[in-house]
């Protein structure tokens, strides 16, 4: 037997050995049943089955019941998850869980008059501690009471903390954030879920997931020059598009895998969320071993070495789809604007800029520049932002700094605002010690807090007016309209940190560092050398400040008081939703017929609304305010069918609710794409919504709707979307016979009294039908505990 290895240094009693033993036993059963070579994804997923003997195992069809090893929650989603957990009545969480304070810290890049003209990381952190004091103290006390590890504000971004401390090869984790798959860089099956799923798992219930399909990505060759792991996923996003990974785990393999760092693999897995993938995973290798050792987990590395057979695909394993990428010829990419799958190889980006008529003061990336011009996108770069949970590894920071150093040597600086977001306190302390921070500030950068900041719209931007077209570039992952600064006219592009750094120094999006030149302070032309960075710090990581609060001993936990003031406008204890009354939904109003992209940012906007994540009634005032009304092409303006007046969407919903009129939303493709936030499902439920009827759903959002007792329905014939007028009334028939796989009928009634009918599909299974009947998954769970 091998020495017992704890899952993390914070959980001395939870052993990886036990996880591996259980995984081996389950896999032995599954292998016998399936009798075929398995992919890595299947090994890890099936290795966590609740019932390996009885579970149906058809990829893309069966609903699996799984036993994840841990739960991670960020502060914006943890509030509602903990509020829900509290209402379950359990004394403590049943699996190791953590809370991370990262989303509620606003980033500033210019002097703030209301804060003694301070700005940047330290000032932002202390400001956040003030304005969010109530929420932080709720989360800290709820964590202490229910046995959840609490990472204080300033500790870093959830996915970076998980990679540094908790992820282990072959493990399974769920996280209440859509970029949870980041841990796939350490061979973990890590899936982004809504808070409601986290509540199930913390309550000791199995977690349900439709058996994922597996997309194989074979990597051959080796990257060079300006190409980095980020470019692999920017390329994959271009191939698969924002929907292409839906219902699938993306599994990388091939000799190219060994030619990139563990943190680079994490970047690729992180951004797999942008193609809708359930998660992404890499097979265990030497680079993961090295990262585990460097982060103080040599024991876990030794265990994984011995368990390696189960941490990679079997020879001959079959994929549902196969993509091959030759790293030798992979170019740096710039993706955007407005969607992460609009991929431009660097050599074509300039053309895109020109073709689009975007301002092009930069002189790089020749073909990207053409794209900018051709499309009329603003080519004058207004800001560059590096770091975030996606790209703030030591290697990333080193490569970006190697570019910045060349500028400094030539006597030039960043031409535009440039921000650096370290992913964790450990990264911050380490790059400060190693002099990288100084390079960034000398070149004109502002170091922001170890937090999400501008990545989640928490950017108090002052240099550009709302509505003014402008371009920014970041090393983040998501670039939907208004995502970073709340300005829908901001054209956001994503690229690697080293490309972003080169761009800010040039100040122009059409600059291509692989061929264009810059002018130094002495008037001489300079070319930039390819970036270089060490994978891991030669002097080891510097942990920085201690930012962790461990839960107290069980005996003292019961004495911890969790306070929610009734007068609070940030937090509100939950009232259970009403159970289904057994009747069909009749003559429901159409609150809005949404047109085009309707992501969770459109349904429940982040940015300034993040502060109400723990207060359902207050946050409901943002419901669908970003969705485009098909009837008038406007946002947040719908006609109230009872009064005939145009009003805001949330106000109209409240009006219907007060009058007892049920309502539905009609929507387009991939409705609910983006984040895992269950607020996008809780809000319509709270304001009296009954069903969401769309052409197709993003997976997480569809499940979240079911958890809250809503009916997510899809048109059997997508053309029926066009039949519906916003003023029609819709009845949903046949609810008493709701059964897995069975269609429901919708009857539409037009203003003139004429009617029409169409069929809708639904994906409820038996268990989920019990949620609908009970009024919510939580109601069903509470009833089960009481019984
Ligand atoms: Fe935060 Fe942006 Fe990552 S919001 S968790 S840094 S995707």
UniProtKB/TrEMBL annotation:
Domain Aconitase A/isopropylmalate dehydratase small subunit swivel positions: 589-717
Keywords: Iron, Iron-sulfur, Metal-binding
SUPFAM superfamilies linked to this entry: Aconitase iron-sulfur domain, LeuD/IlvD-like
Coiled-coil ranges from the UniProt annotation: none
Cofactor: [4Fe-4S] cluster
Transmembrane portions of the chain: none
Record domain Aconitase/3-isopropylmalate dehydratase large subunit alpha/beta/alpha: where: 42-507
CDD domains in UniProt: AcnA_Mitochon_Swivel, AcnA_Mitochondrial
InterPro entries the record matches: Acnase/IPM_dHydase_lsu_aba_1/3 (IPR015931), Acoase/IPM_deHydtase_lsu_aba (IPR001030), Aconitase/3IPM_dehydase_swvl (IPR015928), Aconitase/IPM_isomerase (IPR050926), Aconitase_4Fe-4S_BS (IPR018136), Aconitase_4Fe-4S_dom (IPR036008), Aconitase_dom2 (IPR015932), AconitaseA/IPMdHydase_ssu_swvl (IPR000573)
Source species, domain of life: Eukaryota
PROSITE patterns found in the cross-reference section: ACONITASE_1, ACONITASE_2
Xref: NCBIfam families: PRK07229.1
Family of the protein in this entry: Belongs to the aconitase/IPM isomerase family.
Protein name in UniProt: Aconitate hydratase, mitochondrial
Source organism of the structure: Tetradesmus obliquus (Green alga)
């Amino acid at each position: 037997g091998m020495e017992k290895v704890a899952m993390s240094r914070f959980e001395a009693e939870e052993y990886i050995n036990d996880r591996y033993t259980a995984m081996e036993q389950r896999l032995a059963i599954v292998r016998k049943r399936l009798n075929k070579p398995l992919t890595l994804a299947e090994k890890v997923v099936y290795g966590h089955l609740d019932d390996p003997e009885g579970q149906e195992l058809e990829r893309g069809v069966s609903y699996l019941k799984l036993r994840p090893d841990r739960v991670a929650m960020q502060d914006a989603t943890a509030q509602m998850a903990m509020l829900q957990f509290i209402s379950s009545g359990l004394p403590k969480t049943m699996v190791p869980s953590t809370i991370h304070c990262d989303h509620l810290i606003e980033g500033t890049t210019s002097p703030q008059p209301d804060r003694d003209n301070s700005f940047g990381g330290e000032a932002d952190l202390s400001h956040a501690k003030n304005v969010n004091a109530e929420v932080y103290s709720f989360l800290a006390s709820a964590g202490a009471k229910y046995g959840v590890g609490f990472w204080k504000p300033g500790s870093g971004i959830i996915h970076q903390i998980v990679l540094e401390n908790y992820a282990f090869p072959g493990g399974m984790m769920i996280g209440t954030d859509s970029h949870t798959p980041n841990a796939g860089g350490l061979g973990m099956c890590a899936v982004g879920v809504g808070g409601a799923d986290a509540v199930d798992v913390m309550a000791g219930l199995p977690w349900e997931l439709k058996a994922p399909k597996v997309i194989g990505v074979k990597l051959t060759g080796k990257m060079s020059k300006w190409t980095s792991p980020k470019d692999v996923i920017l390329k994959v996003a271009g191939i698969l598009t924002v929907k292409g990974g839906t219902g699938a785990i993306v599994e990388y393999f091939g000799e190219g895998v060994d030619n990139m760092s563990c943190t680079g693999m994490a970047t690729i897995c992180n951004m797999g969320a942008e193609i809708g993938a359930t998660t992404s995973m890499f097979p265990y290798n030497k680079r993961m071993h090295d990262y585990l050792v460097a982060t103080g987990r040599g024991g876990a590395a030794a265990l994984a070495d011995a368990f390696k057979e189960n941490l990679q695909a079997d020879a001959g394993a079959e994929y549902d789809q196969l993509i091959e990428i030759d790293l030798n010829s992979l170019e740096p990419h710039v993706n955007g604007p407005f969607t992460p799958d609009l991929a431009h190889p660097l050599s074509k980006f300039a053309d895109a800029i020109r073709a689009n008529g975007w301002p092009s003061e930069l002189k790089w990336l020749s073909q990207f520049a053409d794209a900018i011009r051709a499309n009329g996108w603003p080519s004058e770069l207004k800001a560059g932002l590096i770091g975030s949970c996606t790209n703030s590894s030591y290697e990333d920071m080193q490569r970006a700094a190697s570019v910045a150093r060349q500028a400094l040597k030539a006597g030039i600086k960043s031409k535009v605002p440039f921000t650096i977001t370290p992913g964790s306190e450990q990264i911050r302390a380490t790059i400060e010690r190693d002099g990288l921070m100084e390079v960034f500030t000398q070149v004109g950068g502002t170091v922001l807090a170890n937090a999400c900041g501008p990545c989640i719209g928490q950017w108090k931007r002052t240099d550009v007016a709302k509505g003014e077209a402008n371009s920014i570039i970041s090393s983040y992952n998501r670039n939907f309209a208004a995502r970073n600064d709340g300005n829908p006219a901001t054209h956001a592009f994503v690229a690697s940190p080293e490309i972003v750094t080169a761009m800010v120094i040039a100040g122009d999006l059409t600059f291509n560092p692989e061929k264009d030149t810059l002018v130094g302070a002495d008037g001489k032309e300079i070319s930039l050398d390819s970036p270089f960075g060490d994978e891991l710090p030669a002097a080891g990581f510097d942990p920085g400040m201690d930012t962790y609060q461990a839960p107290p001993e069980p005996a003292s936990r019961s004495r911890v008081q969790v306070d929610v003031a009734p007068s609070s406008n940030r937090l509100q204890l939950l009232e259970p939703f009403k159970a289904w009354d057994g009747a069909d939904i009749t003559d429901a109003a159409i609150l809005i017929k949404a047109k085009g992209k309707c992501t969770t940012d459109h349904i429940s906007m982040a940015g300034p609304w993040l502060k109400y994540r723990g207060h359902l009634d207050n946050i409901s005032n943002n419901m669908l305010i970003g969705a485009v009304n098909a009837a008038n092409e406007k946002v947040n303006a719908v006609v109230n069918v009872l009064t005939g007046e145009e009003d805001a969407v949330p106000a109209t919903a409240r009006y219907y609710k007060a009058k007892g009129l049920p309502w539905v939303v009609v929507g387009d493709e991939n409705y609910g794409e983006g984040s895992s936030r269950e607020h996008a499902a809780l809000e319509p439920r709270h304001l009296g919504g009954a069903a969401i009827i769309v052409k197709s759903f993003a997976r997480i959002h569809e499940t979240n709707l079911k958890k809250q007792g809503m009916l997510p329905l899809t048109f059997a014939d997508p053309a029926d979307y066009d039949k519906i007028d916003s003023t029609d009334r819709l009845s949903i028939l046949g609810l008493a016979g709701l059964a897995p796989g069975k269609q429901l009928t919708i009857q539409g009634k037009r203003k003139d009294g004429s009617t029409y009918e169409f069929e809708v599909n639904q994906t409820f299974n038996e268990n989920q039908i019990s949620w609908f009947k009970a009024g919510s998954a939580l109601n069903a769970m509470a009833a089960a505990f009481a019984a």
